[in-house]
User: Fold this.
Amino acid sequence: MNTHLKIGLVGFGCVGSGLYEVLNKSGLLGATIKTIVVKHPEKKRSLPKEAFSYEVKDILDDPEINVVVELINDSVAAYELVKRAFKAGKHVVSANKKLIAEHLDELLALATENQVSFLYEGAVAGSIPIIRNLEEYYNNDSLTSVEGITNGTTNYILTQSNFGVDYASALAQAQELGFAEADPTLDVDGFDSKFKLVLLIKHAFGLSVEPNQLHNIGIRRITEKEIAYATEKGFRIKLLSRAEKIGQEVCGFVAPHFVDRTHPAFEVNNEFNAVIVQGLFSDRQLFLGKGAGSYPTASAVLSDISALKFDYRYEYRKSDAGKNLQLSEQFYLNVYIGTPHAVTLEEAGFEEVYESFRSRDYAYKTGLISFEKLAALQTNAREDLAVIVLPGALQKPELVVAESANVEFNTH
Amino acid sequence: MNTHLKIGLVGFGCVGSGLYEVLNKSGLLGATIKTIVVKHPEKKRSLPKEAFSYEVKDILDDPEINVVVELINDSVAAYELVKRAFKAGKHVVSANKKLIAEHLDELLALATENQVSFLYEGAVAGSIPIIRNLEEYYNNDSLTSVEGITNGTTNYILTQSNFGVDYASALAQAQELGFAEADPTLDVDGFDSKFKLVLLIKHAFGLSVEPNQLHNIGIRRITEKEIAYATEKGFRIKLLSRAEKIGQEVCGFVAPHFVDRTHPAFEVNNEFNAVIVQGLFSDRQLFLGKGAGSYPTASAVLSDISALKFDYRYEYRKSDAGKNLQLSEQFYLNVYIGTPHAVTLEEAGFEEVYESFRSRDYAYKTGLISFEKLAALQTNAREDLAVIVLPGALQKPELVVAESANVEFNTH
Assistant:
């Protein structure tokens, strides 16, 4: 099929207005926006007042409109809107990662019931076609890991920090450039990266998880001490969404990582995102593109719209395999923990300590720790701990116990 | 559909034997190799003699076999084999870029006629899923350029050269590592990169071109003088397959390029390949993975086999748009030409000269030149000219004429 698409657009911010320009003025994609619904009539916009509606029913009740493009910030309102759109028999394109991470299975069931598509490439890693590749190219259950820089705001801040700019200034810069929200909590505490990780785990492994099942460690507590440590060791700091399949378990979390020059994300700077995929039989692949800003999102939304012309929908081919998997926090990893309160490090519960440093005002340890103990530290909620993962594979407990007597850890 | 695939494998080199291990021992993909055909009975192999057949008819006449995986070097024999396989109603997976670049339209017609699939992800840029992405994700005619490092051998040699190893030693290393063939002509003169460019142009723009319509400039004439020039300017040298759509024309060629730190290929080293895709409405995307060696190819072949389980075939959705396009050599570009014979530079036909250097034993010029004049130099056939493209957009003649009076060229 090669349908002409009539679109109902909800939300007319940067992404929405860009879409309008491209679709209605270029005509290239054979899709046009028929109705635009916005919330606030009084806001100044690039189109005259008459171009807008203020009721979503103007879209939902219009039988000519076959696609709803949802581009609103409010994930609660978006949730209601998307459900109503499916029930009205309309395809939905969305880039709302929070909405999708929190309600994917329910929304999918509704989309399937109403025989419509639900596409959301723009929700993960901006312009990078990672969902599509996980669906189509890596369509079997041989993937072993997926990890990536999925948040442009924090990557911008960390890049600037690596180059010597302090956290507050880097955040202010990111806000000025339009990458960071006024309240940056979702970004800097790793929630946004976690929503994306939920979607990566679903499409890489077929496993459904809820955001609150995944632990996220943010970048807010990283100080000049950690930057100095990175410089000394030749590392850079990157906030990674990371999931590995080990046996029938998926280990997934969000945390800042020290990455060395051999890591594919080492040179991925500023607002760029990157996703690295590895399979049993496939070489490690890196996908790179811009992740923050309205343009990358618009580009992914356009690709979704273009795919709808060919009746495309995600097939979720790994869902059966995913039913045999479970999420696990039973693994060990190498971490750095820094703090002004040295006593805290005694309570952290390292399985093995590699390095220990202490001065009058700062202390850090590096070593092997169980993820459960690391998560129990609740680092986002306290102000005195910087946690950064060190290079090294995730290890299952049986291995750690078996080898702990005589093992060499290669941390740098 | 989710067919169990029975494979007839022709060729049992590194890729073929790796495939056998994965498919027949892991069982993961729901596909098994039933019959293996090889040419030389006397060759020592990892399986006993009884495991092999020596006649392709053992595959072609077997109604149980639904897929032929063609992994032989000889592109003439492969051409006959693939045609017979299609006529026998079997899907074909191949990584033979020369075969496909030279005969794609004919083979496609035959595959379509017999309602079978012809998949060849392994033919371009090793493990990178670029054909699939050009087909599926960039499914509309809004792409403007595709370029990439598509040959691992030459990238290995150039990387080593950038780091100070001379050409002959770097080539010997590449051969030792199994990246380069005993006769490296196809690689170092840019023919291999050109075969891949034919496929990129087909899937990016829908335009069918023949290999001999595209000009390829190789890396064989690059000397320590060019390496020194690169170092001085902060460039690295990369052999790029490059195609840009300007209006209704596609400008495509293979040549070594000086790339600066802002170019996404700058850090793509050794046996890695990378493809960079840019569209009217999409951000520049980079796809990175290993390009040389048997493992990356095997990984792409496996993905093709996996896709066949879901009856996948390339749709060539841009073919209609491609009929309105034509290949063009009517463009200008910035180049460096170096030679021991300064007089040659006088005859090169620069439109405008940016730099001119002359010593007792070497001379070079940089400047704007028409591609037709550059191609007429026939640099692969002579020993005294090193041609390397400088940073800058390709320019159509009308622009060059209009702006030549007062234009600033930013070459570094």
Summary: Chain A has 15 helices and 17 strands.
